[in-house]
Predict the structure of Pirin N-terminal domain-containing protein.
Amino acid sequence: MQTAAFFAALLSIVLAYFYSTSSESVREVLASLVNPGNPTNTNNPVPSVASVTGIATTTISSLVNKAAATATSSSSLSSSEEGTVFAPIVLAEEMIVARTIVKAFKAIEKAEGAGAKVRRSVGTSQLKNFSPFLMLDHFSVGSEAGFPDHPHRGQETITYLLHGSIDHEDFAGNKGTIHPGDLQFMTAGRGIMHAEMPGKNGDGSPNVGLQLWVDLPKDLKFCEPRYRDLAAKEIPTVTTDNGKVFIKIISGTSHGVDSVRDLAYTPVWILDVTMKPGARLEQALPKGWNAFAYTLKGKAAFGANGEKRVGEFYNVVFEQEGDGVVAATDDNAEEDAHFIIIAGQPLDQPVIQYGPFVLNTEEQVYQAMLDYQTHSNGFERAKHWQSEIGKRMTGR
């Protein structure tokens, strides 16, 4: 296969994979290129690889021309990290009012790529653009699958590994491996190109974890990219309710214990909670933040009076009003309950997304496509770069 054709095909796979998370206005543009002159329903299924390959190989020039016509100058791609001012965190001194529940729904497992399975609970019609959260994937991926070289701009990703291992490598020379209980915080900023590839487990089991996409404030969209790995041994813990509740404080505060600081730009709390039978948890959360819980194992009841009982793989979405979250387990529960509480400060800004590019205007999305294609404005190092770990899947 010729080099140009190979990279066009690889780009088509990346575009197809990310299509389902794109903003409707951007999907309309892309679909119009595949089917010119036809009205577009943005709820249509992900286009075939052949269709997206057509965009990559024969009509990508249309996107580039559109980008060039609407692009902002390169001087607009700068941002000062000191320019972002977040509202102060306000916590209730005592848990007086428990947050009520907006909705609860089960994340359905779907095949994603070759050998991967994903339960997506944020970034679907059930819960889309729940600011600052863009996507939450509960993934299970074998060693034969993975995510070879692909770009990002404008968001942060947080990967929490539950089983196995995941290797990562980017065009800035960052590389490493995370293991169970470890996390990787990546800020894409103005542009990053990287690969994420699963390890091979001796027992043949898949690699399992969570990946959360978090929006960046508009004045940090074009900051320099960065990585922070957080090892399991670095995560503070606390035990409450006479030893019945165990909490890993990945980010935020729980019962007087603080997490490691400066992991992500956008203020986000992540708490990993395990509850034994007959346990009760009262967890304060910052006022006005959006919050949800995602259940991994067992059964738990959420709400002041335990009004919502859910099993594994449910997303429980809470109202902004209230002091925090209340959860409980039955005295006769057959197993521990394990869930993640995630909360974040909402961002008052539009979200325009095409796959791995998350910006505030359509023009910025077109600009991102142009920059990626022309290796400019943050993607300069992508021109001749190819990850070593990505070769496992591409065979090159």
